[in-house]
Amino acid sequence: QVQLVESGGGLVQAGGSLRLSCAASGRTFTGYTMGWFRQAPGKEREFVAAIRWSGGNTYYADSVKGRFTVSRDNAKNTVYLQMNSLKPEDTAIYYCAAGPPYYSGYSLLDDYDYWGQGTQVTVSS
To answer: DSSP readout, 39-96?
Structure first.
């Protein structure tokens, strides 16, 4: 069974950095899209960033462009989200997700079939 496990969340001051990891297991992810989403209390889950497992193409929400970087280590079946210049509005639970190759999109919840349990990121001012 496919499992995605996030780690690396925590408390950080505004302007600081944090790196999230998502360990993926249960299958080969060739052709998959690996995405990061976040959800703050009272808000809808929103797209943050995504990467194509094989080609390495990356995509970012406007709110994080220039601050966040998504990457992957194919040998370790792990994806990362490097978060720099963090702002209080980045506070949320962050989720990783995996989308099969027959879905062509990357920014919608329906583009993904598998989800991790989430990791909390809190940015203080």
So the answer is: E-TTS--EEEEEEETTT--EEE-TTTTTTEEEEEEGGGTEEEEEE-S--GGG-EEEEE
56 φ/ψ angles, rounded to the nearest 5 degrees: 80, 5
| Residue position matching structure tokens 């989403």 | 37
Residue 120's CB: how many other CB atoms inside 10 A?
A: 12
Q: What is the largest CA-CA distance in the chain?
A: 42
| pLDDT tens sequence across 89-112 | 999 999 999 999 999 899 999 999
Q: Is 8 buried (19+), middle (13-18) or exposed (0-12) by CB count in 10 A?
A: middle
